């Protein structure tokens, strides 16, 4: 690296004023153009339907068009619908979720304005469907046009990547597939011979070593440098930044934090300082916790009302099956490892419970009615009261017995991270084939991996998806 001259003490002193805002939205005209196209598509469909229905465009439909247009700009920008690209299908789903919010809020606004009696429900339903279809069609056309313009006419930002490990390869692949980004990766710079031998992105050649960085930037006319190095190379990262500080080139650091076990990771800022959450409960957000809690309690109360005849019948059959209480109560770990009491219909004969043992396929402790309710998961229905109480959720990692947690904590890395959210009556692991006995460490490891995947991906939509898939998962042969 280039020898650095000694800096003036003023340049090395700490900055006392507020740092510049860290998390900035780097807007480009292309994604703003796409949002504008969506506004035009929604407005055109609304006006066309209104004209077809009444022969003119009445004021209340004009108002709806204005409200929806403003909401599209705000919500699509807020949710970053076009800020990233991970496939056209995924983008279509992001548009669907954001468009659903726009429609819901638009209808709420018309209700508040007392216009719901003047607006045709038929027009609203057709508008919601056709406007979404028009947005998807516009997106596909715009994407192809932008991709062609980017390839042939748009000025490219010539970029190099420092590093050749998996993070650098993932970065290069993501930039290449994203037509919204003007970056064109010229090649990679690295000293790691072993990593370079495994470099698969053949279209991005090896440009040279770190010590030749300044000469490489000049020779290849690079405008931007992406630093995709592991955190262990922090000294090298600082040296690189210092070495090219006098060259007019953008420097972008892509920190490799993914070698660690991350839970619901995110990036925020406070007064210009970066806050990188490596492990955080999805319910740390009061808004998310409120939404999940409201859905849990509403659905649990509705389920209790609808299923009360079945639950009364099962209670009577359990009471007649063998001596003992109707409900079985067991201490288990809940949110953040707190001990909770989970309720189930008793499915076994009374026995010595000093040692907790998982039920097996031909377990002679299980009663005839118990075998049926375990197979169909009817024995879990009393946990609806746990959901109403707030100690459990409808969806989340299944709570294990405390004794099992004590065993697996020492055998599976990050096992207790599954308690960073409320335990659920059903979960991502259960609808992905991991329902029932976990008689091997491999099965429990797979369940934990799915539980952590759920926590990382959590959303209200994912909870709804899991609840829809749960009845089909009840047919699993692993449950007994």
Quick summary of this structure?
This protein is an alpha/beta fold and about 475 residues long.
Total strands: the figure is: 11
Number of domains: 3
Mean pLDDT: 80
Helix content: 40-55%
Number of helices: 15
- General shape: flat
Order of helices and strands: HHHHHEHEHEHEHEEEHEEHHEHEHH
Largest sheet: 5 strands, parallel
Strand order of the largest sheet: 3-2-1-4-5
Distance between the termini: 65 Å
Given as residue ranges, the uncertain stretches (5+ residues, pLDDT < 50) are 1-18
- SS-based class: alpha/beta
- Strand % is 5-15%
Output the radius of gyration.
29 Å
What are the SSEs and their pairings?
Elements: H1 9-12, H2 29-54, H3 59-78, H4 88-112, H5 121-152, E1 157-162, H6 166-177, E2 183-189, H7 193-197, E3 206-208, H8 213-219, E4 224-227, H9 234-243, E5 250-253, E6 266-270, E7 273-277, H10 286-321, E8 327-333, E9 339-345, H11 368-375, H12 383-389, E10 393-395, H13 402-409, E11 424-426, H14 441-457, H15 460-473
Parallel strand pairs: 1-2, 1-4, 2-3, 4-5, 10-11
Antiparallel strand pairs: 6-7, 8-9
Could you describe the 3D structure shown?
By secondary structure, the chain is of the alpha/beta class. It folds into three domains: 29-152, no CATH class; 156-259, 3-Layer(aba) Sandwich (Rossmann fold); 284-473, no CATH class. It has 15 helices and eleven strands. The protein has a five-stranded parallel β-sheet. Strands 6-7 form a two-stranded antiparallel ribbon. Strand 8 and strand 9 form a beta hairpin. Helix 3 (59-78) crosses helix 4.
């Amino acid at each position: 690296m280039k020898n650095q001259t000694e800096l003036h003490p003023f340049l090395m002193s700490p900055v006392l004023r507020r740092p510049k805002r860290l998390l900035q939205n780097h807007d480009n005209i292309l994604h703003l153009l796409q949002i504008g196209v969506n506004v035009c598509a929604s407005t055109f469909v609304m006006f066309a339907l209104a004209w077809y229905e009444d022969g003119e465009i009445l004021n209340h439909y004009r108002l709806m068009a204005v409200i929806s247009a403003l909401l599209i700009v705000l919500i699509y920008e807020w949710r970053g619908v076009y800020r990233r690209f991970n496939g056209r299908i995924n983008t279509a789903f992001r548009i669907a979720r954001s468009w659903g919010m726009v429609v819901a809020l638009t209808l709420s606004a018309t209700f508040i304005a007392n216009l719901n009696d003047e607006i045709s429900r038929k027009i609203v339903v057709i508008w919601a469907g056709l406007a979404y279809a028009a947005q998807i069609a516009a997106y596909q056309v715009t994407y192809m046009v932008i991709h062609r313009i980017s390839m042939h006419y748009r000025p490219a930002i010539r970029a190099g990547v420092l590093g050749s490990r998996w993070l650098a390869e993932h970065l290069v692949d993501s930039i290449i597939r994203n037509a919204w980004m003007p970056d064109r990766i010229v090649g990679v710079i690295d000293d790691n011979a072993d990593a370079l031998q495994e470099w698969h992105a053949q279209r991005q050649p090896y440009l040279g070593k770190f010590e030749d960085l300044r000469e490489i930037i000049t020779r290849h006319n690079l405008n931007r440098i992406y630093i995709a190095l592991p955190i262990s190379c922090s000294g090298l990262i600082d040296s690189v930044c210092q070495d090219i500080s006098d060259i007019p080139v953008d420097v972008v650091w892509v920190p490799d934090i993914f070698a660690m076990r991350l839970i619901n990771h995110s990036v925020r800022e406070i007064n210009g300082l970066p806050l990188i959450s490596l492990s955080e409960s999805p319910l740390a957000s009061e808004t998310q916790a409120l939404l999940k809690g409201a859905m849990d309690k509403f659905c649990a109360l509705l389920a209790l009302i609808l299923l009360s005849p079945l639950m009364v019948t099962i209670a009577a059959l359990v009471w007649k099956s063998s001596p003992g209480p109707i409900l079985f109560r067991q201490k288990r770990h809940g949110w953040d490892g707190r001990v909770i009491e989970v309720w189930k219909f008793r499915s076994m004969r009374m026995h010595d419970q000093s040692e907790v043992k998982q039920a097996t396929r031909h377990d002679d402790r299980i009663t005839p009615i118990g075998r049926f309710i375990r197979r169909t998961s009817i024995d879990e229905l009393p946990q609806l009261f746990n959901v109403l109480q707030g100690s459990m959720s409808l969806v989340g990692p299944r709570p294990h017995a405390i004794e099992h947690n004590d065993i697996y904590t020492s055998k599976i890395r990050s096992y207790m991270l599954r308690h960073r959210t409320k335990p659920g009556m059903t979960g991502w692991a259960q609808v992905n084939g991991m329902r029932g006995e976990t008689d091997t460490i491999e099965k429990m490891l797979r369940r934990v991996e799915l539980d952590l995947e759920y926590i990382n991906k959590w959303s209200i939509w994912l909870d709804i998806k899991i609840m829809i898939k749960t009845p089909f998962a009840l047919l699993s042969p692993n449950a007994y």
